[in-house]
Write a structure and sequence with these properties.
By secondary structure, the chain is mostly beta strands. It contains three helices and 27 strands. It has helices at residues 2-17, 157-162, 322-331; strands at residues 37-38, 48-50, 53-68, 71-78, 87-90, 94-101, 110-112, 136-142, 147-152, 167-172, 183-192, 211-214, 225-228, 232-239, 245-249, 254-259, 262-263, 271-272, 274-277, 281-288, 293-299, 362-364, 367-369, 375-381, 414-419, 427-428, 442-447. Strands 1, 11, 12, 14, 16, 17, 18 and 20 form an eight-stranded mixed sheet that branches. The relative contact order is 0.12. It binds copper (II) ion. Copper (II) ion (CU) is lined by residues 212, 245, 299, 301, 304, 374.
Length: 448
């Protein structure tokens, strides 16, 4: 009953605020002093002004979430999603965050990185009582900093974060940024252990994770980052998983401009192409998107761009398993073999296992993109008028790597020509030295 009422109140709040955060055009002018953050595959938490206080409402609850077609998990999240909606506010704001607990367990919310009064810190047992199922607590404080922060439970953390309870808390500076950010993205990194054929993440797992997500999605379900050529881009990365994730960009280098400790002074910013995001931290990166194309952005731990991987299997490189596969499956239905010549052929493996996606991949313009998990595409385009997915990049003539043109074989139709690299007029049909400079003549096969 309480759950229903809070949901109805929340829905009314959303409708009355009518905050449409999905940006559909490329104009960066908006009603705020800042560029609104885009959380691909996610959302921004609406708020309501009560006097001079910005009031937000988070509802911790069980969620069913599709990582990609074929896999729906039973997780825990906020307001129907994992990660929860992004909280966005401005330095100097007074915020009140109502937290309703609709989970089957007590919880609290810790505001990771925020400067606040001790009693608002959310550390269960130490700074506050537990929010029991059905209860709503209010957190209230003034934002005294800006940057990329997080919220997450500080109660039975291993279970509650393994189940998906986490979200961004982004604070924009009071003074507009210079240079202005045109596209501001937020990607929460997470890892999960979901045994093939099951739906509930295993909170006891410490090392053997098999799904790696950007904002609760695995590639190919991760939303692309669509950017207009020339725009200044920020990507905010957050990590509350148990492993570090070295995030790598193709085609660009970026500056590391912030952590959950705040903005990095410009003289201390490092140019990089891979930024390691350690557990319990955030990193902001910035670059100007001046080269059009479809550019991969992914975790550089190679097994984090795979999904559904199982461990402890024998190395099958060079082994033809087809004859025994059906026999093995008859007793171990979740058996997902490693390929004979590697793992690239495995994106369709695991077919027939309920609620399981093997590897994960997508048909690209040149064939199968052998990527899953923590992978997305940065789509930089000239002359776009919306941020809808523009489809595959169309490469200008002659700019795609391809097989070299095969030279005709030295058969009866071809004749060997020897010429001097320095004196092209020196040509003969047998090897020798150039009479002008003494260099060895080089062979050029030409068709008659
Ligand atoms: Cu990773």
């Amino acid at each position: 009953m309480t759950s229903k009422i809070t949901k109805i109140i929340f829905l009314l709040l959303c409708i009355s605020l009518n905050l449409a955060h999905a940006q559909s055009d490329t104009s960066t002018n908006n009603k705020y002093s800042y560029t609104e953050v885009v959380t691909p595959n996610g959302s921004t938490l609406p708020w309501q002004m009560q006097g001079s206080v910005k009031v937000f409402h988070l509802i911790a609850e069980p969620v069913k979430q599709e990582f990609a077609p074929g896999l729906v998990i039973n997780g825990w999240g906020y307001n129907g999603q994992t990660p929860g909606p992004t909280i966005e506010a401005v330095e100097g704001d007074r915020v009140r965050i109502l937290v309703t607990n609709n989970l089957p367990a007590p919880t609290t919310v810790h505001w990771h990185g925020l400067f606040l009064p001790n009693g608002m810190d959310g550390a269960a047992g130490l700074t506050q009582k537990w929010i029991q199922p059905g209860q709503t607590f209010a957190y209230e404080f003034t934002l005294r900093q800006h940057g990329t922060f997080m919220y997450h439970p500080h109660t039975d953390e291993m279970t509650q974060m393994a189940m998906g309870l986490m979200g961004f808390f982004i604070i924009h500076p009071k003074e507009p940024e210079n240079p202005k950010i045109d596209r501001d993205f937020a990607i929460f990194l997470h890892e999960w252990r979901i045994k093939p054929g099951t739906a509930t993440p295993d909170p006891a797992e410490m090392t053997e994770f098999n799904y790696f997500t950007f904002n609760g999605k695995v590639f190919p379900a991760t939303g692309p980052l669509v950017i207009k050529k020339g725009q200044r881009v920020r990507i905010r990365l957050a990590n509350l998983s148990m492993d570090n994730h070295p995030m790598h960009i193709h085609g660009y280098s970026f500056n590391v401009t912030g952590t959950d400790g705040g903005r990095i002074p410009i003289t201390a910013q490092w140019p990089m192409t891979t930024i390691d995001v350690p557990p319990g931290s955030t990193r902001d990166i910035e670059f100007v998107a001046d080269e059009p194309g479809d550019w991969p952005f992914h975790c550089h731990k190679t097994h984090h761009t795979m999904i559904g991987m199982e461990h402890g299997l024998p190395n099958m490189i060079g082994v033809d398993q087809k004859p025994v596969l059906d026999k093995v499956r008859s007793t171990i239905p979740e058996y997902a073999p490693m390929g004979q010549a590697g793992m690239a052929g495995m994106h369709h493996h695991g077919r027939g296992i309920e609620n399981y996606i093997g590897m994960g991949s997508m048909e690209g313009p040149f064939g199968e993109i052998e990527m899953g998990g923590m992978f997305t595409v940065i789509k930089v385009r000239d002359n776009i008028t919306t941020y809808e997915n523009p489809g595959w990049y169309s490469h200008p003539e002659g700019t795609v790597a391809d097989e070299v043109e095969k030279k005709p074989a030295n058969d009866s139709n071809t004749k060997a020509i020897y010429s001097c690299p320095m004196h092209p007029e020196v040509v003969q049909d047998h090897p020798g030295k150039c009479p002008k400079c003494g260099m060895d003549l080089v062979i050029n096969n030409t068709k008659n």
